[in-house]
What does this fold into?
Amino acid sequence: MLNWQIETLDLALKFTWKISRNASDMKTNLLVTVGNERVQGRGEAAPNIRYGETPALLLEQFANLQKNGLSNVETVEELQFLTQREAVMPALRFALESALVHYLCRKTNKSVPEFLGVPAVASTPTAFTFPIMDPGKIAAFAQEHQLKRFQYLKVKVNEESGLDMMGQVFKATAQPLIVDANEAWQDPDALIRFMEGLKKYPILMIEQPMPAALDEEYLYLKPYSPYDLFADESVTDHADWDLLKRQFHGVNMKLMKAGGYLIGLEILQKTRSLGLKTMIGCMMETSMGIWSGIQLAHGVDYLDLDGMLVVKDEPFGYVQEKDGILTPIKQP
It folds into this structure.
């Protein structure tokens, strides 16, 4: 029998993390450990309230799994069967699966890319994200956090201050920009007007500008968009792929939404098979979760794995960042 454990980790952030739907200065994540007295593996869950996830709910689900046979699980297939049967939320499923994969890799002397059947990545660039803030503070923020070292930057926006923020970011930086609205717009025509105001800026893409439920609005929007539209909230651990291809140009896969390495890999493969562009993103995570994202980064068009850089005292050091480049150091 394997020994499964879970603990909470309270993370203070370097600055207020504000997006279109909420703001926070602290984040509580969960750490799962599995193994025996000789070998262990660890995984991270970053609960996201957008999907109904809270630390308390995930702890409750973990306790339920323990009552229903978690200690008997020894393979990824057994774990998938149990977590699907018990309707476990994606972030906890990912923490469980990644911990088990890491344990099995140590036990068999395999690397995680070998286990998953993907090419290993020695290092990769990442975006760094401006949260929503007073536009007048952007220049100081860019200087304080030395954002010139990143190859591209991401800007969180809402409908009220989005254009003002983009104007100030353009003045303070020189890199290409990703615009992330986190479902802020309801009206596609208003969004098209916002896009018109961006034409003087070096925009790479716009990420999930309207709520995922607005199917017809996305179908209307895509032909008018001068920029690539990337799905984020529209893709969790499942998606309507036929519809998605008609709505977007690319997909942002996040392991915390996918619920595991294997489903995350399937999402990336399906995205490519449809001729869509790929991206790997993250929640507010430590280097434990970011390390996992890097394992699937081969051939991905864009990486937004800066969550650990927002954590005030990152506790693990599984990934090193230098000059905007992420390098995995050791396996969780």
